[in-house]
From TrEMBL, chain A:
The keyword ATP-binding applies. GO terms for molecular function: ATP binding; ATP hydrolysis activity. It comes from the Bacteria. Coiled coil: none annotated. This is ATP-binding cassette domain-containing protein. Keywords: ATP-binding, Nucleotide-binding, Transport. Transmembrane segments: none annotated. It holds the Pfam family ABC_tran. PANTHER family: ABC TRANSPORTER, ATP-BINDING PROTEIN. The keyword Membrane does not apply.
From TrEMBL, chain B:
It comes from the Bacteria. The keyword Metal-binding does not apply. This is ABC transporter permease subunit. GO terms for cellular component: plasma membrane. Keywords: Membrane, Transmembrane, Transmembrane helix. The lineage of its organism: Bacteria, Bacillati, Actinomycetota, Actinomycetes, Glycomycetales. The chain crosses the membrane at residues 20-40, 60-78, 99-129, 141-166, 173-196, 235-256. PANTHER family: INTEGRAL MEMBRANE PROTEIN-RELATED, MEMBRANE PROTEIN. The keyword Transmembrane helix applies.
Length: 314, 261
């Protein structure tokens, strides 16, 4: 169980984390979601006492800095994957293990577990991004901790690796562990996480289960197509709907499909299409955090104008 | 604390640079003793040559071992920042003061062991060449050698403090080499210029210059016509060098506690 209260961090002018409070329960995977620069990594560093700021994080009731041999209770995989260039991966882990009374046999065990058994005596400098990520997970798992804090662990992994990571985290959670894992991809979190903490610009946007988030932020729209829908648009607006024109169709939000059909029927408007369209998860995420996105590209590349099928991204 | 020591020992002993820096330090100091032996083997062994042979040329103004060990001192914290490992280190050992203390203890122990090993090797060289080492355990040679070990230790502590203060390797290296070799030499040299004689009283406070007095055999005679530097005694001068190291260490330690990792 992780309890974070009033986390706050500012760097000179930017407030990176703004009074965040949340709980992370054991037994489930909790996703920590936010666009680039929203403060996920800073929050995690604050939780571990690496950065100094305000607020307090308790891991099973204890502050990280007060835990004796903390790797046995809290495992962390941070954003940067730093290694000394001339020290082998195995020695890197042996060094961290030595500070927590973890035997060398456990080092070999976790390296086998993450699939790096054959390259454990090599230097991580020569590892690929995916291998470095696996070594990071091995580091987090060294002390067989009850709580895991992982900052974008799937970064750089191929689809197979992502699948593997997902299974590992789910299994660990089902053993009753507390798993807090950050990502900027909602589609990934939907497959991996049960609970979500969503932030934008350092402030809380949503805290609850994934399905609720999707329902709350995925607006469904009604697409209306016909030879002459101009007058219908006025009628729909009068009913309080938002109406946008898209090529030869009206895209109606804020009204149910039945209501739209009824209004068209009473107005005697000929329709060629009347259908619903659900916004994709990524769009839901964008609509939730979009207003708080910090680094919006000046001219976004419009890959797909219309809604993409759900769960496309991976 | 034992955990932190175990961590730091694993850290330093799994680094290749630790071995080659120690090896180079021992090699060069032994080399100086051998060269002295070759050059002066037919002369009677006086205290001056004996001291210089044992401290590997340090009293001659070239503290080789101190320099190599100071680089290990700089690496102790400098590497953690240069390669970013400070973050995983602090997730393994979050008590920052305990971590620094463990690093200090390991570096100090390593320095003392290597310094005494170097002196032992050089004593062997002296015995092989001259067959004797007269007055080794008596004043003034014994005192000068203790001073040499202290000088090396303080030098290494300055390096350790600089690595932690600058949170990196290159800047700390620049300072530890520029300060004694260039800045202090220039101030010392300029003090001889009559128009700059206000520099004269400053000289005795120059940390590395003061520290070097720790390993002097006899008060060095200045050439006639030199200004009167009014240098402090061996132990007071050593105290100034130690104070300098303590100031850097304290500043670095306080900042380390306060700053983000
Ligand atoms: N050391 C630092 N100094 C100054 N500003 C910083 C520092 N670290 C982070 N920031 C700022 O704090 C904000 C949050 O950054 P953070 O890295 O926590 O975001 P993030 O959610 O992890 O982003 P990403 O998805 O890209 O990893 C950003 O605006 C960033 O510029
Ligand atoms: Mg990040």
């Amino acid at each position: 169980m992780i309890t974070a209260k009033g986390l706050y961090k500012r760097y000179r002018k930017t407030v990176a984390v703004d009074h965040l409070s949340f709980d992370v329960r054991p037994g489930v995977v909790t996703g920590f979601l936010g666009p680039n620069g929203s403060g996920k990594s800073t929050t995690m560093r604050l939780m571990l006492g690496l950065d100094h700021g305000e607020g307090e994080t308790l891991f099973d009731g204890k502050r990280f800095g007060t835990i004796r041999r903390p790797m046995n209770e809290v495992g962390a995989l941070l954003e940067a994957k730093p290694f000394h260039p001339t020290r082998s991966a195995r020695n890197h882990l042996r060094m961290l293990a030595a500070g927590n009374r973890i035997p060398d046999s456990r080092v070999d065990e976790v390296m086998e577990f993450v699939g790096l058994g054959d390259v454990k005596r090599k230097k991580p400098k020569g590892y690929s991004l995916g291998m470095a990520q696996r070594l990071g997970l091995a580091q987090a798992l060294l002390g067989d901790p009850q709580t895991l804090l992982l900052d974008e662990p799937t970064n750089g992994l191929d689809p197979h690796g992502i699948h593997w990571m997902r299974d590992v985290l789910k299994t660990l959670a089902s053993e009753g562990r507390t798993i807090f894992v950050s990502s900027h991809l909602l589609s990934e979190m939907q497959l991996m996480a049960d609970e979500l903490v969503v932030i934008g610009r350092g402030t809380m946007i949503f805290n609850g289960d994934v399905d609720t988030f999707v329902r709350e932020f995925t607006q469904s729209q009604v697409v209306v197509r016909g030879p002459d829908t101009g007058s219908l648009a006025e009628t729909l607006k009068a009913e309080g709907a938002d109406v946008a024109t898209e090529a030869d169709a009206l895209v109606v939000s804020g009204l149910e499909i039945g209501k739209v059909g009824h209004l068209a029927f009473t107005a005697g408007v000929e329709l060629h299409e009347l259908s619903t369209r659900r916004a994709s998860l990524e769009e839901a995420f964008m609509s939730a955090t979009g207003a708080s996105e910090q680094f919006v590209a000046k001219e976004p590349v419009r890959a797909a104008d219309t809604a993409a099928p759900e769960g496309k991204a991976l | 604390m034992l955990d932190a020591l175990r961590f730091e020992w694993t850290r330093i002993s799994t680094l290749r640079s630790t071995y080659w820096l120690t090896g180079m330090g021992l090699l060069v100091t032994t080399g100086v003793a051998v060269l002295l032996g070759v050059a002066a083997r037919n002369e009677p062994l006086d205290a001056e040559i004996l001291t210089m042979a044992l401290n590997g040329g340090a009293s001659f103004g070239l503290p080789f071992l101190a320099v190599f060990m100071a680089i290990i001192g700089i690496f102790a914290c400098g590497h953690e920042y240069r390669h970013g490992t400070i973050q995983p280190t602090l997730t393994s050992l979050p008590q920052r003061s305990r971590l620094i203390l463990a690093k200090l203890i390991v570096v100090v122990a390593a320095t003392l062991v290597v310094t005494f090993a170097s002196m032992a090797i050089n004593t062997l060289v002296v015995y092989i060449v001259w067959g004797e080492a007269p007055g080794l355990f008596e004043d003034p040679i014994a005192t000068a050698l203790i001073g040499y070990a202290l000088y090396t230790l303080i030098y290494v502590l300055v390096g350790f403090g600089l690595g932690l203060l600058f949170r990196g390797v290159p800047s700390a290296l620049v300072v530890i080499f520029l300060m004694p070799l260039i800045i202090e030499s220039i101030i010392f040299g300029l003090a001889f210029v009559p128009a700059l004689d206000w520099l004269v009283p400053v000289v005795k406070f120059l940390p590395f210059t003061a520290g070097a007095r720790l390993m002097e055999l006899n008060p060095a005679p200045f050439p006639p016509g030199s200004p009167d530097f009014d240098l402090f005694s061996r132990w007071t001068s050593g105290g100034i060098f130690a104070l300098f190291a303590a100031l850097i260490l304290t500043a670095a330690w306080i900042l380390f506690k306060k700053r983000d990792a």
